[in-house]
Amino acid sequence: MQIPAAFDYARAESLEHALQLLSEHGPEARVIAGGHSLLPMMKLRLANPEWLIDINDLTDLAYITEDADVVRIGAMTRHVELLESEALAGLFPIVRDAERTIADPLVRNRGTIGGSLCQADPAEDLSTVCHVLGAELVIRGANGERSVPMAQLHTGPYETSVEQDEILTEVRWPVRPRTASAYTKVERRAGDWATAAAGASVTMGADGRVEDVTIGLTAVGLDGGTATRAADAVRGQTPSEDLYAEAGRRAAEQCRPIGDQRGTEAYKRHLADELTRRVLRRSVERATAPLGRGV
Ligand SMILES: Cc1cc2nc3c(=O)[nH]c(=O)nc-3n(C[C@H](O)[C@H](O)[C@H](O)COP(=O)(O)OP(=O)(O)OC[C@H]3O[C@@H](n4cnc5c(N)ncnc54)[C@H](O)[C@@H]3O)c2cc1C
Questions:
Q1: What architecture is domain 65-174?
Q2: Residues 202, 177: Cα–Cα separation, whole Å
Q3: How many CB atoms are located within 10 Å of the residue 274 CB?
Q4: Is the CB of 112 under 6 A from ligand 1?
Q5: What's the CATH number for 179-287?
Q6: Are 271 and 220 a contacting pair, CB within 8 Å?
Q7: Which residue, of 42, 105, 221, 245, is most buried by count of CB atoms within 10 Å of its CB?
């Protein structure tokens, strides 16, 4: 059995208290949310914090609120709440698509959106969802609040622009009319991390052309989080199988997968191509469905 190195533990009573504890204990302190990424890393001694600052009592950071032009998600919102939210399923079907594939109920009951994004694992599904939805992240520190676009959150694998004495507090997803989204993933078995996955969000114009589109890929080494060249091929065009094929080809070309136990580089490129086609097709179908919220 693997056990972590010795550590001290403090349970924060409020956001201010958590920030104070982080400042007090310095670089050796780490926030713990659901613990489903941090604890396995500690057991493997890949992370050895001397202090764990538990933020599970900050229930005021667990919420989903819907305004006309933005949806706000508190950082302590659990996977299960994202999965079960009817409001999110209507506005951003990509969220339920992705959540259905993440781990198992045990992990989904505890894991949080804040922890998922701050873990910055290249195979993490919600990061792709946030790239595709053009998320804005709210970060709090002792000196106040700042917000960063999703494209600036991850500075490398397992590295973020959230400073040691800061806490991610909120994720904002802009609401766009005539827009729908989708996510699909290939995994070796149910609940596994992605061999590869893709997500897309499509805004349809009144003329039947694609007004705007964002495409994201998971676990295939895509710099910057979105498949920009594939999106460029689709924007302004009339949806068709040929268009999806061109986007898939470009997505496969732009990513940089690494062969591992989940598949060869060539197989992952093939998945990037095929899954890009599927999420584009599905997003367009959803955005143009007569009863869809995206219409
Ligand atoms: C068996 C298993 C299977 C899994 N499968 C998948 C999968 O298929 N797809 C997938 O995407 N994920 C998967 N996960 C990961 C899961 O989604 C985790 O819940 C998630 O990655 C981390 O969320 P957490 O709340 O548990 O974070 P924690 O483990 O508590 O924290 C992770 C990191 O984020 C930091 N952190 C946490 N919250 C904040 C905050 N608010 N502000 C600043 N820093 C913060 C912590 O200090 C730590 O460095 C799996 C996990 C397990 C154990």
A1: 2-Layer Sandwich (3.30)
A2: 10
A3: 18
A4: yes
A5: 3.30.390.50
A6: yes
A7: 42
